[in-house]
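Incident log, structure service

09:12 report received: a user says their structure output differs between two submissions of the same chain.
09:20 pulled the input from the user's history:
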Amino acid sequence: MIEIRNASKLFGASPATFKALDDVSLTIEQGEIFGIIGRSAAGKSTLLRLMNQLERPSTGQVRIDSQDIGSLSGSALRRLRQRFGFVFQNDNLLDSKDVTENVRLPLKVAGRGSRAEQLKRVEEVLALVGIADQGAKFPSALSGGQRQRVGIARALVHEPEFLLCDEATSALDPETTQSILQLLLDIHRRLKITVVLVTHSMSVIRAVADRVAVIDRGRVVELGRLVDVFLKPSHGVTRALLAEIGFEPETKPAGEGRRAGRVISLSYRGAIATQPLLTRLALESQLNFAIVSASVGRLKNVPFGQFTIELPELSDEDFARFIELCTERGLDHEAL
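09:34 re-ran on a clean worker, output below:
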């Protein structure tokens, strides 16, 4: 488990001090895929680099499995960093070395195993990331997606517990991005490794994350399960990021435009997605309501639906009965 406690990070000297992180607290559980999203210069990469102590917090703590790692140095710090694999935005491959030697480098630096053992491990991770036949090539002969797969293989070669990905797909085209995201999901499933993914794209978060932290100007402004953050965003920055991918929850106040009745938002997620919820709701309530907007889809592997409906004019008692029926059917609701 990775735990950040009230961490702040300052760069520069007064009066030109820049606060990259401001009192950040969050926990990343073992075995999950945790997404960190925000705009440029929000503090995402700085937060990621605190986790393996490439950056040290100015105040606050970083704890791994309940141990405060802030005081580690020398061999203890090197051992800590060997628990992490790091995937860079730009693959950072050495153009003078072939793929095999690029991936083997962390093992050589750490002095782990014989040359034969190292090469065997390199073969294993190249097969894992889908480029088993590329070992003899040099980076200049590879596509962008292949280079990133080499970077992922290098991050995994020493069998880390945590995989940190800093904008690992931002330099790739959409099709290649999807292939890399599927690769990360496959690695997570097969290795049971904890993945922390920094990105500026809600589409990336939507495809892979279990939980997500939204960061703005060095502060975590929203934190929760993927489905909750998408379906019930509480902060303007989150809503703006969702709007950029066309995922914009209904936020119009009741009475806007032509609507005379009550307007409510209904949402569901998970197993109940296969049920005819709206049909059942209309029959059981015996109400004629209009669907103002609707969206259905999947958030990672969780099906969801979100509907905005306009009810006829109802008494408070009848409206309360309708809301009770929604609750019984497993629908979340919010009056607009």
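09:41 both user submissions now match this output. Likely a transient worker issue. Closing.
09:42 reviewer note: Residues 252-259 have pLDDT under 50 and may be disordered. The longest strand covers residues 18-28.
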